[in-house]
Amino acid sequence: MDNKTHCIVLRTVKYGDNKLIVDFLTRDEGRLSAVWKISKSKNAKVHRQFFQPLTILEADFTRTPRQQMATLTDARLAETYSSLPFDSTKLSVAFFIAEFLLHTTRDQHGDTMLYDFVEQSLLWLDTTSRGIANFHLMFMMRMSRFLGFHPDMESFSPGCVFDMREGIFCSHVPIHQDFLLPQEAEKMLTLMRMTPANLHLYVMSRTERNRITDIALRFYGIHIPDFGEMKSLAILREL
Questions:
Q1: Residues with Cβ < 8 Å from 238, sequence gap 6 or more?
Q2: Which of 21, 52, 178, 184 could form a disulfide with 164 if both were Cys (CB 3.0 to 4.6 A apart)?
Q3: In the chain, what's the furthest Cα-to-Cα distance?
Q4: Measured distance between the N- and C-terminal CA atoms of the chain, rounded to whole angstroms
Q5: 3 state DSSP class of 46
Q6: Whole-model pTM above 0.85?
Q7: What is the full per-residue pLDDT of the chain (239 aa) written as tens digits?
Q8: How far is Cα 136 from Cα 89, in angstroms, rounded to an integer?
């Protein structure tokens, strides 16, 4: 099987002396892991720098029925970032997003709408000159639409609690412990109203932003089995 597709690098792991295993989010196949043989030739078309987290590539893969993992045969930069690799704040956010995607798309099959959302979000992050401290919050909640557990905004009413398991606002406290009391339930509503156009208007303290980040990650942990620990969270907390 040969396939050419747009893809986003999520992680690389060294494999032996001269190979990398690269985890991609691809437009056509969803999550894909592929082996790439490192070339030391100065004339090589594919460079190791291509496999930095969140690099957007157009890549060629091949796989036979006996192979468990695809082989990367060629790759080209599909988009070139202008600021993301050089802006320390954006880079911190990018490392978090790459790890977040690694956790949330583990079993993802081809979904062009999800892929396009991720790619367009990254390009917006790269080009914006406005404050992006809340970008990861907006990204997490908007992505839940594509994963099937986006909170029901229409169920909101003042003073209600938020049932994190059902993804709804309700007037009564559920019998389980996965819920938010009214004050924090309203913060979920705030998250869902964020868009690239209005993101800069939401001003939060670092403490408040970190608390909402914890809530959003807890929400994902409820809906995605074995979500795992976010190692990049410590860096994000300093923004």
A1: 92, 206
A2: 178
A3: 66
A4: 44
A5: coil
A6: yes
A7: 568 889 999 999 988 788 889 999 999 989 999 998 877 766 566 777 888 999 999 999 987 767 778 888 889 999 999 999 999 999 999 999 999 999 999 888 888 999 999 999 999 999 998 889 899 999 999 999 999 998 988 888 889 999 999 999 999 899 999 999 998 998 888 888 899 989 888 888 999 999 999 999 999 999 998 898 899 998 888 87
A8: 12
